[in-house]
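pasting for ref. prot 1 ->
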Amino acid sequence: MNMKISLYLPENASDPAKFLSSEIAEARNIKNKTNRKATIRGLQKIAVACRERYESVAYFTDGNELLVEDYNGKKRKYHCGRDYLRIEEAPYEPYLLVVVDSKEASIGLTDGEHIRCLWYDESFVMHKHGKGGQSQRRFERGREQALKQWFRKVVDKIRDFDDGERRLIIGSCGLTTNQFYNELPT
């Protein structure tokens, strides 16, 4: 039985020479002579092929033949065993992330692994206060208007970054989420 080696290298991968030499050193400890020789031979074949190309590529070998395929994944994966490791990477739809409250807001984009900040701003909405008196209601109306304008500004920024195909995730505290959600277009 030959050992089958699968090595997936993503885009922007660092040179795998150090990793492969470490694996070859460990393969020397395999007790079964046939498996040891096949594994070392396979790793050496991959090491030679990596001198030419080691980004966005998947290598498969049983020690005799080397199969090279394109790989669009984002993580390096290595497997040595009875069967090849086959990865079917499903494309992940990007989500638009919105985190908003009365003080600040951020809009980001995620691909499932990373979050990239697209926009951030702070508001000038006045803080709540619990003092009574004649002007309390007038103060609350002014704050509500400022908060509504702030939410509209954030919605306008969402429109700038949204292409109509992305899903939206909103993060906020309870009451603010409801108020902000009411400002979103249907």
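and prot 2 ->
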Amino acid sequence: MRKPLRRSLRTMSRNPELSALVSALTGTWMGQGKGGYPTIQPFTYREETTVSARGDHPDLQYEQRTWRQTAAGEVVSHWETGFLRLSSDHTASMINAQSGRAETMIGTWEHHDGEWHIELASTAYAGDDRVANSTRALKLDDVSLTYEMQMETNAIDAMGVHLSADLSKQS
């Protein structure tokens, strides 16, 4: 079972495009976002996301924390942690845990017009039977990261934007 891991690590270290994407993603990102959905009131939030890489493992680990803006001030809103695997064949997979829920996603990554694009779609969602489907689309360069998260629930039978944010890489 160790051979596939070693092969994956060698492939990652030899693929300059994948190495450049990992380098662009790694670090701390901060910024503002907005959320909403037909079943909830629109809101704004502050976000901090940290992405870490290890040279001896193909997965990137990330932690996302958000604070919602309310009339009474800022309150803790969301905390998510997970792993993102980017493969040299331009596939991507994510596993995350968030406030009693867990999600697995698969998708692709590519580089064009000076930006990295990562698109993921849920394959399984556990711990919250309200969510039927979700997608995440990320765009980044060396200094900015934007994303949009769409979802479909058992109350709304169509994909709709739930979250979007603009983040800047911190030095």
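The two ends are 38 Å apart (CA to CA).
The helical segments are 2-14, 16-25.
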